[in-house]
């Protein structure tokens, strides 16, 4: 099972293996409080795409398309996450965005779920 969760929410036992999937560490959150098992910075959207989204926040569908394109070149990281899910049963993709519905972890989870089916 793959879950997603904001970095500012408290870790829970049901999170399983926790993977930070953002390029930037969340402000004001210590490593001890976040309790990450892994940090895969390279699975996150590129700096250019992150900047583009911040300037075009109303273009969510276009961001999803652009990020999915970037993920095509990151197959080794996608495979790594799927392997971790198989080993740990549950993984949680941890993200820093304040938007719980429109963030890169949502897109990443969709792509991973598609790869599993």
How would you sum up this structure, described in words?
The protein is 44% helix and 14% strand. With 117 residues, it is an alpha/beta fold. It has a 4-stranded parallel β-sheet with strand order 1-4-2-3. Strand 2, helix 1 (31-34) and strand 3 (38-39) form a beta-alpha-beta unit. Helix 3 (60-71) packs across helix 5 (104-116). 23% of the residues are buried. The mean pLDDT is 93.
Summarize the structure.
With 117 residues, the chain is an alpha/beta fold. 44% of the residues lie in helices and 14% in strands. The protein has five helices and four strands.
Q: List the helices and strands in order.
A: EEHEHHHEH
Low-confidence stretches: none
Overall pLDDT: 93
Distance between the termini: 13 Å
Shape: globular
Strand coverage percent: 5-15%
What is the overall number of helices?
5
Topology readout:
Blueprint: E1 2-6, E2 17-20, H1 31-34, E3 38-39, H2 47-55, H3 60-71, H4 75-88, E4 91-95, H5 104-116
Helix pairs in contact: 3-5
Characteristics:
117 residues, alpha/beta, 4-stranded parallel sheet, 5 helices, globular
């Amino acid at each position: 099972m793959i879950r997603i969760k904001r970095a500012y929410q408290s870790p829970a036992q049901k999170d399983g293996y926790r993977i930070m999937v953002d390029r930037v560490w969340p402000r004001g959150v210590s490593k001890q409080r976040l309790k990450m098992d892994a940090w895969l910075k390279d699975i996150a959207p590129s700096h250019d795409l992150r900047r583009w989204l911040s300037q075009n926040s109303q273009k969510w569908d276009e961001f999803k398309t652009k990020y999915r394109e970037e993920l095509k070149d990151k197959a080794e990281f996608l495979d790594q996450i799927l392997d971790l899910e198989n080993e740990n049963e549950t993984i949680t993709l941890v993200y820093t965005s304040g938007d719980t519905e429109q963030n890169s972890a949502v897109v990443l989870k969709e792509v991973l779920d598609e790869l599993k089916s």
